[in-house]
């Protein structure tokens, strides 16, 4: 009968849905899952009632969050290792567990094994088991009153240096003018006005800097780099002083702005993406140019140390320690002196210039003009300065050496190579052309090709000297679009240039050459042909290297070997074009004669690309010059200046290029 009653009771429990008492392992697994998912509120709910009496939920949650945030904890993983039985009776329930906790931190990985006890409380009907929590479960040896101390050791940022070791972006010291806000005194507003005028800052900019969250009593707040002559008068004002501070310095300033780029403090959006890579609030980040491209190598790795200290501040245990690893210095192929010289020759005209060593493919300069001063970003660009840059019609923030432009007549050298490769162009053959306009036939309607000189009989050399559009248009039509496109594409059209610095991809057409008119225009660098100043420079390298197109190199990391495209044209054709380009400069009638130097043979080609919507309309003209020295070649320049109409056309560009050859090639 007794057995029957028990059986009925068991059936009753089953039918009424009564649940067996929760096992301690279930409770602990719920605690571990909440911990791994950083759900600290749910962790707290799994504590024993006794533990909850000793620490409140808000304090518990805040402590975990503050500690994990302070040490930069990521990749937390807490796992159960084993369980133990406290009772001596066989089959008694486990009441203690051993777990392992591991995480990555700013000071390196931390891993430890610890034991935790679960206690049974009969008064708790639903969850009778609870974690007997104490501070040692955060980290071993922690007790009430102890603190976790985290120190960060910032890595020194690597430098950008030129081929001779000169700095382009370096860690230096800068004299900064600033204020201690709580010492400005009763004339604070008058002082701010004086500083506003001296530093070209608006009052709004100054107030924004002085209200930053990091400022505390007695803190010096840098406002800007002052004119030394202004310091004496300003430093006498209450609360105003100057300090030499460690900062990123760009010695060439505007001359290399788009090349180097700049660094700025990381913003919230960037931090959300880069936190997994160890970035923290206040870190400096490359925002443009090489500072951005080489950010990972330049940044280095921050170090740190994490300790447990008692209430008096005495260190009890070091949990993790890692030395900072300095960022890598990047040695570039750039020549800082040449970079500065070319920028000065640009004289703030809108344009771009690229210099290469045509014998090696090394990039010696990348210039965009006009430019901004990257040093301004270190102390913070004011709204006023930002507006000035953005409103400037010459667009100093635009990086022109990465942008696409119609190359105009400097492209004729590519057309000449294509003609020679296909044997359509015969060097000594003369074309008879009459007048300044030419149209293929009536199918072109009122469309025609123009030239600037009426020369009736021309060879290829004559056509390059006279920069004759009609000659090269006829050569391209004789080739046909298939041969023309095939040969021109050998110069790297449609391909990303194999260097770390991103530049736009050169194109022969938007979606193929569709007509004879487009083919004719393409032959002299108009139509839909687009190239960057860098790609224009690279397209002339085969005429120096027996027909081979070399890899461009901006740093040692970019060098992938010497030849990028072998046999773009034959050695014989390359030498022939080089001799013709020499004639363009040496012949007094050549448009490139302005770069003629008696003791330094220069080969080159000028070009003018007109930007207009319809034939016959006036449009903006961009002037070009590409040239290189032919004896022991070590300098090739591609230079473009916008809006040269009425200012000398391509002759304006030639005049800027000549002094560079005079200085660099002796």
From TrEMBL:
<feature type="domain" description="NTF2-like N-terminal transpeptidase">
    <location>
        <begin position="24"/>
        <end position="146"/>
    </location>
</feature>
<dbReference type="InterPro" id="IPR007887">
    <property type="entry name" value="MecA_N"/>
</dbReference>
<feature type="domain" description="Penicillin-binding protein dimerisation">
    <location>
        <begin position="154"/>
        <end position="318"/>
    </location>
</feature>
<dbReference type="Pfam" id="PF03717">
    <property type="entry name" value="PBP_dimer"/>
</dbReference>
<dbReference type="Pfam" id="PF00905">
    <property type="entry name" value="Transpeptidase"/>
</dbReference>
<dbReference type="InterPro" id="IPR005311">
    <property type="entry name" value="PBP_dimer"/>
</dbReference>
<protein>
    <submittedName>
        <fullName>Penicillin-binding transpeptidase domain-containing protein</fullName>
    </submittedName>
</protein>
<dbReference type="InterPro" id="IPR050515">
    <property type="entry name" value="Beta-lactam/transpept"/>
</dbReference>
<dbReference type="InterPro" id="IPR032710">
    <property type="entry name" value="NTF2-like_dom_sf"/>
</dbReference>
<comment type="similarity">
    <text>Belongs to the transpeptidase family.</text>
</comment>
<dbReference type="InterPro" id="IPR012338">
    <property type="entry name" value="Beta-lactam/transpept-like"/>
</dbReference>
<feature type="domain" description="Penicillin-binding protein transpeptidase">
    <location>
        <begin position="351"/>
        <end position="660"/>
    </location>
</feature>
<keyword id="KW-0472">Membrane</keyword>
<dbReference type="InterPro" id="IPR036138">
    <property type="entry name" value="PBP_dimer_sf"/>
</dbReference>
<dbReference type="InterPro" id="IPR001460">
    <property type="entry name" value="PCN-bd_Tpept"/>
</dbReference>
<dbReference type="Pfam" id="PF05223">
    <property type="entry name" value="MecA_N"/>
</dbReference>
């Amino acid at each position: 009968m007794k057995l029957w009653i028990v059986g009925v009771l068991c059936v009753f429990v089953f039918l009424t849905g009564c649940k067996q008492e929760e096992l301690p392992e279930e409770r602990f697994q719920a605690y571990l899952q909440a911990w791994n998912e950083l759900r600290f509120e749910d962790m707290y709910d799994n504590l024993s009632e006794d533990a909850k009496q000793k620490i409140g939920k808000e304090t518990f949650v805040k402590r975990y969050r503050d500690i994990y945030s302070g040490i930069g904890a990521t990749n937390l993983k807490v796992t159960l290792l084993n369980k133990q039985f406290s009772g001596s009776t066989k089959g008694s329930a486990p009441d203690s567990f051993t777990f392992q906790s591991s995480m990555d931190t700013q000071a390196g990985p931390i891993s430890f094994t610890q034991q935790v006890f679960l206690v049974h409380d009969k008064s708790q009907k639903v969850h009778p088991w609870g974690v007997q929590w104490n501070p040692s479960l955060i980290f071993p040896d922690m007790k009430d009153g102890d603190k976790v101390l985290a120190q960060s050791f910032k890595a020194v940022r690597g430098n950008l240096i030129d081929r001779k070791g000169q700095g382009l972006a370096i860690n230096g010291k800068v004299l900064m003018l600033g204020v201690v806000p709580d010492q400005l005194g009763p004339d604070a507003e008058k002082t701010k006005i004086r500083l506003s005028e001296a530093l070209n800052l608006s009052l709004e900019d100054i107030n924004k800097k002085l209200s930053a969250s990091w400022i505390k009593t007695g803190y010096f707040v840098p406002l800007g780099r002052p004119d030394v002559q202004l310091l004496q008068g300003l430093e006498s004002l209450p609360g105003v002083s100057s300090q030499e501070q460690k900062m990123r310095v760009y010695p060439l300033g505007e001359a290399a702005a788009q090349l180097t780029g700049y660094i700025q403090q990381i913003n919230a959006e960037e931090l959300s993406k880069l936190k997994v890579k160890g970035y923290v609030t206040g870190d400096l980040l490359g925002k443009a140019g090489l500072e951005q491209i080489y950010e990972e190598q330049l940044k280095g790795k921050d170090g740190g140390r994490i300790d447990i200290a008692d209430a008096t501040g005495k260190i009890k245990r070091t949990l993790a320690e890692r030395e900072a690893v300095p960022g890598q210095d990047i040695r570039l192929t750039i020549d800082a002196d040449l970079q500065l010289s070319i920028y000065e020759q640009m004289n703030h005209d809108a344009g771009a210039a690229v210099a290469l060593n045509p014998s090696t493919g090394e990039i010696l300069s990348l210039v965009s003009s006009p430019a901004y001063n990257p040093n301004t970003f270190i102390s913070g660009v004011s709204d006023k300065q930002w507006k000035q840059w953005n409103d400037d019609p010459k667009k100093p923030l635009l990086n022109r050496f990465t942008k696409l432009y119609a190359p105009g007549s400097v492209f004729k050298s590519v057309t000449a190579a294509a003609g020679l490769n296909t044997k359509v162009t015969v060097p000594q053959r003369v074309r008879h052309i009459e007048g300044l306009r030419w149209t293929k036939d009536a199918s072109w309607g009122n469309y025609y090709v123009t030239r600037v000189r009426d020369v009736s009989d021309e060879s290829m050399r004559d056509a390059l000297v006279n920069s004759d559009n009609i000659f090269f248009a006829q050569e391209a039509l004789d080739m046909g679009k298939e041969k023309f496109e095939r040969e021109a594409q050998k110069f790297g059209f449609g391909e990303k240039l194999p260097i770390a610095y991103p530049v736009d991809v050169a194109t022969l057409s938007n979606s193929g050459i569709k007509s004879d008119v487009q083919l004719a225009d393409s032959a002299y660098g108009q139509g839909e042909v687009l190239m960057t100043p860098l790609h224009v420079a690279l397209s002339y390298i085969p005429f120096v290297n027996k027909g081979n197109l070399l890899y461009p190199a901006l740093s040692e990391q970019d060098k992938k070997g010497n030849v990028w495209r072998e046999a773009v044209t034959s050695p014989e054709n390359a030498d022939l074009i080089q001799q013709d380009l020499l004639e363009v400069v040496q012949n007094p009638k050549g448009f490139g004669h302005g770069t003629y130097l008696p003791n330094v043979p220069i080969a080159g080609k000028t070009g003018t690309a007109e930007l207009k919507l319809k034939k016959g309309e006036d449009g903006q003209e961009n002037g070009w010059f590409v040239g290189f020295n032919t004896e022991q070649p070590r300098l090739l320049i591609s230079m473009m200046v916008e809006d040269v109409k009425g200012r000398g056309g391509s002759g304006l560009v030639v005049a800027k290029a000549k002094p560079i050859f005079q200085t660099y090639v002796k």
